[in-house]
Fold each of these.
Amino acid sequence: MPSDVMDRETMTSFLKEAYTLEGFYAIESAFHYDTLQPQMLDSYDSLLAAYNITRQDFEHSVEWYAHHPELYGQMHQEVINQLDSMMTTP
């Protein structure tokens, strides 16, 4: 993996946080994302800052993982498992 690509653990963690944000905004907006777009973008910017990465860094990492679909699929399954666990844990 190139050094300018987010490692698997970081990428998985980031995706989990991003999907959690998307879920929150889906519910808040009754699935009318356009009504909350400015707030969503601010939240994504905050998430990127928390991981100390730029939007370009993230996009580059997504592009790299997209060229490695087996690995990307495994990461997405890890994220889904973690989110499922969060939903079923009291």
Amino acid sequence: MENILYFFKIAIQTPIFWLLISIFLSIICYFYFQPKVFTFSVFMCVFWLFSLTPLGASLWLGSLTMMNESVAGSCLKNENSNSVILLPGGLSWRPEDKGEKLSDWSIKRANRVVELSKESVLEQVILPGGLGSGSNSEAELLKKYLQNRIDIKKYLIAEKSNNTFENLETLMSLLNNQRPYYLVTSYWHMPRAKGVADKLSLITCPIITMNQINWSLMPSLEAHWHSKAAMHEWLGLAWYRIKGKI
């Protein structure tokens, strides 16, 4: 029963699931002469099909940048911050990577730290544990990635955590909430990450990755995962607000 509930929980966060539901509903309404519902379900089919294209996925993720307007002014430019919190962006589960490589999102976030190191003097990078274990955890892989690109003497790795709230909560006993920290994550993830940081009374300066639009209308597996991430993020924002985590 638990496996079924887990599968359903994952399924409802995927565009392909809702596309199949919309197609099924359209077929039922067509044969049972329900023109209004049929029109609506066809519209939903088009919507979910569009979300499987790179352009649709880009717009889905881009919609989350509207929430960044509320955190844009919280960067403490006059504070002497030399520590950065780098939130992990997952591991690659592609068969050829054997689950031991950083995802593209993790790499983009790490590259943002590299760019930041050229603008500011960084002395410490703080890495929540995230997925994986041992030398193949997100935190350890991010540490190795950064060590090959920038000269930072101190890395702080927190306990293993599995979501945005846990990533920041596990740091509370290790950080000084009276000093500012750079907070680095993806542009679409920052609204939830900054909300959690504020809730935990962490003083953070948001540093986000670049928002790039892909104009292709050819459906792809990558677009599916990007739209899934957008759905997950919007649902996560709503759930965190309900639970009082942001």
Amino acid sequence: MPTISFVTLGCKLNYAETSTYERALTKAGFTAVPWTGGADIFLVNTCSVTEHSDKKGRNIIRKLHRISPEAAIYVTGCYAQLKPEEISRLEGVARVFGANEKSKVVPAILSDAGFT
């Protein structure tokens, strides 16, 4: 079973969305693990309320890449909506999903991982 870790930054809506992603992906066969131990895939739900929020998002993505250099990192949330090109240039980032693409997150991860 592939492992997946979830990192959520920001508001309650982001936490609710991450819970929905986690339920769908674990139901499909992923094993959820703490991000600090590394994973095959990371899903980062970002915030962009302030420039500090953007910096926090970039820093966690870089940290995840250092923890698991071979892992695919998927990024969604407000920061992903506002600065997708900036995020996609970060090492390890597999895909970036803006707010209007949230419904594509789970299918894309499943497809990329060979589940479909």
